[in-house]
Amino acid sequence: MVKGSTTLGVCAALLLAGTGMANAQSVADFYKGKNINLLIGVGVGGEYDLQARLTSRHIGHHLPGNPNFVPQNMTGAGGIKMANYLYAVAAKDGTYMGMMSNTLPLLQVTDQPGLQFDVSKFNWIGSIAPTVETMATWHTSGIKTVDDARKKEVVAGASGKGAMTYTYPAAMNELLGTKFKIIVGYEGGNAVNVAMERGEVQSRNNTWSSWKATKGDWLRDKQINILAYAGPKPKDLDGVPSLSSLAKGADERKVLDLLMSGTEFGRPLALTPDVPTDRVKAMRAAFDATMSDPAFIADATKLKFEIEPVKGEYLQGLARELIDLPKPLAMRAKAIVQ
Q1: What share of residues in the chain are helix, strand, coil (percent, to 5)?
Q2: DSSP label of 238
């Protein structure tokens, strides 16, 4: 009995020691030699994709253990497919991250179908900058102002319901009286751009920074007209009205602000839910350090991306705040995006 008890005691002690070692594993020990899968919910070449790949080239240098970040595109339903995968399927250990659609909180607030996630439970890491959303028309469309778009139907290209490419013109139709005919099904922004060049569509939503980064020649050659913007006022976009300024009343303005809430998220990165707290903290610190890394700044400058970092802690609070909005406001927004 004494010998058996001693043996059991030794085994128990070893088991506890092993558990303690596992719990005490440092962030550096965990990430050393690992790959971090950085999923991108849209196609190659757009702003989401470019910012994800830009960040992936630098952030690993600032994360303990210096893991390798591997960007991968997982397209479908305007980023919903990827978000569902991260929430329900991907490992919850800090090895899966997503470049998230900034419309996900709005989609949850408005009870859109197909969502299998709670945005407040993702671990938000940060964003390079807030976005300025715009609505643009092709130079041959004959539509140069919002008032023009109220008088004549114009075809807008979009990836799908739930994506900002759909929500923006839909909101303008409902709240400002424009006549955009929205065609969905394009894989991403580049596909819509090609459709504009071919004459299949005459307009699309895009961010101001994306226009400058990916289609600077269109701006230079006046191939597109910017009708309106939402988000922080750009220093280099003169004479273009904000959506809020065009709203007919306070209620319409509140609905527009909800629909355009993604501008505060920018192009955000998030880890899966249930990642150990120390790894989330380390990833946020790595992202913050990346934003001031001279090599990162040099690469971002080449791509014409402005850097005004949005911290993960702020995004986490904003996600919680949005999903707690009053139901009447959410339901009016729902009628627009569905």
Answers
A1: 50, 15, 35
A2: T
Domain boundary among 235, 262, 289: 262
* Percentage of residues of the chain with pLDDT beyond 70: 93
Question: Across the beta sheet with 180-183, what order do the strands follow?
Answer: 180-183, 154-157, 203-207, 133-138, 224-230
Does 159 share its domain with 220?
Answer: yes
> Which among 202, 228, 262 is the end of a domain?
262
Domain membership of residue 20 (yes or no) is: no
> Which letter, b or e, does each residue of 242-254 get, where b requires 16 or more Cβ atoms within 10 Å of its Cβ?
bbbebbeeeebbb
Residue 275 CB-half CA count within 13 A: 28
Residue 41 pLDDT more than 90? yes
The predicted model scores a pTM of 0.79
| Structural domain for 304, as ranges | 33-129+266-337
- Confidence label for 2 from pLDDT (cuts 50, 70 and 90): very low
